[in-house]
Amino acid sequence: MELRQLKYFEKTCELLNFTEAAHALCISQSTLSQQIKQLETELGILLFDRIGKRIILTEAGSSFLPYAKNAIRESENGKQIIRDLQNLDTGKLCIGATFSLSPLLTKALPLFAEQYPHIQINITFATSDELMVKLENNEMDFVLSFGSEESYTDFERVFLFSSRLYLVAGKSHAVASKAIINFQDITSLPLILPSKGFVTREIIEHVCKKEKLHLTTEIEINDVNTIISLVKNGKQATILTFAAVRNEEELIKIPIASGNELSTHAYLFWSKGLYRKKAALHFNRILAQIINKG
Q1: % residues pLDDT > 90 (the chain)
Q2: The whole model's pTM is what?
Q3: Which of 73, 121, 157, 163 could disulfide-pair with 241, CB 3.0 to 4.6 Å?
């Protein structure tokens, strides 16, 4: 069993198409098919069912996939350990982040790139739930996300800061003059809210369920930047963390009065037990310096 066969298997599982996988891997389809067949022969079981031009992962293939991914990741970790020991500032850093933490990330990136110009950085923005799946599958070095103390306990975490939820609206909105607002008043407002999977949305739904309130949600979007753009000049308001709109001068941020906990906490999440690249640890230190400076 060779590492390249595992990489071929992983890409084929991702695309479920030999032609597309071969193209992505920059090899011929016949080479890919041959390598997958050799892997199946060595394992003594089919990893894919071939149905015409379609392929479907078998039960054995599904069971084998996480071990293949882990072997690939461990191989990359081994290479990175050697680079770190040799003080070679090269390689790749994969970072996941929720949209609300993009302001913090954009401050850290230039500082990091200045010190590690030869490290390739790959950034993925998604919901907290989506990012944690990627972290669990070893597709990320670390994830920057909001969460509660009870959420995502299968991962190690570093606390970054806390941020409270605010009602956010354009300066011409009817509520723009309010100094404070409660959830009961918010129920009458047309809203644009983050999609399910965002920690902010989970807090909102928890409060509404507890207080038996129903919000008027007209639009759900999985992109905070798009929500902000729509709210600036629209009739709808939204509910976001202060961290997400701190630098948005065109928006009004109104505190929400509530007896419920409306703060969420930003963390850096690590996978447990995996090697942490020197570059990833340094990125963590840069984040801490930015936060400490306020």
Answers
A1: 49
A2: 0.67
A3: 163
